[in-house]
Amino acid sequence: MQLKQIDINSYLRKDAYVVAFLDGSYCHELSSKELQLKDQYDGSLFVSLSRDDENESLIQLLYIYSSHGGEFSSNVTLHIEKLANVNVIFEQIFFNDNNSVNSFLDIIVNSGGRCNVTDVCCNIGNNDVSNKISVAVEGDGSFNYTGFSTGAKLFRNEITVDLLNNNASTNLKGGWLLDTNKSIVTSVCVSHFAPNTRSNQHYKGVLCDKSKSFFESTVCINSVAQGAQSRQINNNLVVDDGVASISKPNLKIFADDVKASHGVTISNIDEDELFYMASRGIDLKTAKQYIIKGFLSEIRYDNEV
Fold it and tell me: Whose CA is closest to 177, among 12, 305, 301?
């Protein structure tokens, strides 16, 4: 499929700096000309974002896959400079199936900087997708992530966050809604390397019709990270029989003065809720949709940052 055959303009955000990739290669034609980009020695793309006293910066990382049966890889590094406030939309669009995709995103948040990432990975289709986000946060900086996926033939999502200096923080939220034979593997690792660092994770998944999910999260609080705070929660809602949900939260604590907790739930739809809605004239399919929507509402997901 040629680029000219794709109505791509509807996917480009007019209010953002666009960094676009077509079948794994950087696309000058679709990307914003205002950004200062350069290639690193390893072939990855490097974007440096400085502080704007008047506005938050909005970056759209747009990955377009138009081929069938291809293998693609891309690597981007975002440097959030001191006191900069940057919002990032990570978006993948597939026009064909049977592709194998590996995307790497490295983020460096300098002191006092803030980076908010919204990860849009829906309608992936029959593709094998692996995304890896690696983040380093310096003192008083923050990294916040909200992601949502409908799964794929095989979808892997890996996030690694290193809290390097005093008062660095991260807040990670993710959700998935899986239907027939879809699967997702989510791996999270947060490391506290300094005092008074904070991390919060909340992931929620809905599984329907023979879908599978695997979630593993590890928080490591090193011996120097006194006063660190960490929270992990993973909730799963089973809608149909024949699904598989595996969750493994891990805490590795080597400091004395910390607050850390984790929790996992895997539950079925409450029959009493279905009975109540049926008594109000709501059919079974609609009732389940209401319950699923309410369950996922805590994971804020939309295309607006």
Answer: 301
Higher pLDDT, 303 or 179: 179
Residue 236 corresponds to which amino acid?
A: N
Residue 114 to residues 64, 107, 197: CA-CA distances in angstroms? Answer: 27, 11, 15
E-state strands within the chain: 17-22, 25-26, 37-39, 45-49, 57-65, 71-80, 85-94, 100-109, 114-121, 128-137, 142-149, 154-163, 169-178, 183-192, 198-207, 212-221, 229-238, 244-253, 259-268
Check whether 43 has a pLDDT greater than 90. Answer: no
What DSSP state is assigned to residue 10? G
Q: CB pairs under 8 A, 24+ apart, for 290-293?
A: 291/237, 292/177, 292/206, 292/237, 292/239
- Asked if residues 189 and 160 have their Cβ atoms less than 8 Å apart, the reply is yes
Helix axes 271-279, 284-296, angle to 10 degrees: 120
**Three-class DSSP category at 276:** helix
For the chain, give the mean pLDDT: 89
185 vs 158: CA distance, rounded Å? 8
Letter for the amino acid at 253? Answer: I
Best CA proximity match to 239, nearest among 177, 191, 299: 177
Contact 157, 124 (CB under 8 A): no
pLDDT digits (tens, 9 = 90+) for 179-219: 988 999 999 999 999 999 999 999 999 999 999 999 999 99
From the list 178, 179, 202, 181, the residue with the least C-alpha distance to 190 is: 202
N residues, the chain: 305
Mean pLDDT of 34-52: 64
What values do phi and psi take at 278, rounded to 5? Answer: -65, -35
Specify the pTM.
0.91
Domain ranges of the chain: 3-269
- Is 305 a residue whose pLDDT tops 50? no
